[in-house]
C-alpha cells in the first residue's frame, strides 16, 4: 500500500468512526422508546432517557451508552485536545451507564428520595450528564470548527461550521433550560406532564449525533480536495 493510499485509508477510518458515534447518538432515543412501547408494552414515555435504565430496556440502555463511551474514548482526533475532550465525553457516557438516575418521576422509586443513597446517586449522575454534554458541546463549537488550512476553507466547511456551532448552542441551551426546570418546584410541577427532561435530552443527544455525523462528512462532504479533515 502506497503512502497516499495509507493516508486515505486512515482518513476514511476517521470519518467512519465519527459517523458511527453520531449514528449511536441519533438512534439511542428511538431504540429505547420503540423497544419499551412496542416490545415490552409500556403505555407512556419515561420521564427521561436515563429512566429507561429502570425499565425492561435496562440492558439495551447500558450497552448502547457504554459502547458510545468506548467509541468516544478511542477517538484520537487530530490533536491532543481532541483526544482529551472526547475522552472526557466518553467517561461521562460510561458514567451515565453505570450511575443512571435514581428516580423516574412516573415510575416506582428504586430507593427512597430522602435517603443519602438517592442524593449521592443523583449528584453523581448529574455530574456525568454535565461532563458528557459539556464536553460534546465544547468539541462541536471549538474543535470541529478548526481547519488546517485557515485561508482555504470550502463552502461545505463553512456550512458545517455553522451547524457545529448551532448543535453546540442547542446542547448548552437545553441543558440550561432543564437545569432551571429541575431546580424550580413550580416549573417542575407545571411541566411534569409534558416530559421536559425526556424531550430535552432527546433534542440534546440528537444535536450531538448530527454534529458528529456531519463531522464524518455524512452530509455536506467537501467536493474540493483542499479540506479533508473538517
Largest sheet: none
Structural class: mainly alpha
Query: Multimeric state of these chains?
Result: single chain
Approximate helicity band: 55-70%
Mean pLDDT: 84
Q: Could you tell me the number of beta strands?
A: 0
Number of domains: 1
- What characteristic shape results from the CA principal axes? globular
How are helices and strands ordered from N to C? Answer: HHHHHHH
Q: List the uncertain runs.
A: 104-109, 225-229
Q: What percentage of amino acids are in beta strands?
A: under 5%
Q: Round the Cα radius of gyration to an integer and report it.
A: 19 Å
State the end-to-end distance.
25 Å
Number of discrete helical segments? 7
Written account of the structure:
- With 230 residues, the chain is mostly helical.
- It has one domain.
- It has seven helices and no strands.
- Helix 4 packs parallel to helix 7.
Could you name the key traits of this structure?
230 residues, mainly alpha, 0% strand, globular, disordered C terminus
Describe this structure in a few short sentences.
The protein has 230 residues and is an all-alpha fold. It is built from 7 helices and no strands.
Compile the SSE list and pairings.
Elements: H1 3-39, H2 58-73, H3 80-98, H4 116-143, H5 155-183, H6 185-191, H7 196-215
Helix pairs in contact: 1-2, 1-7, 2-3, 3-4, 4-5, 4-7, 5-6, 5-7
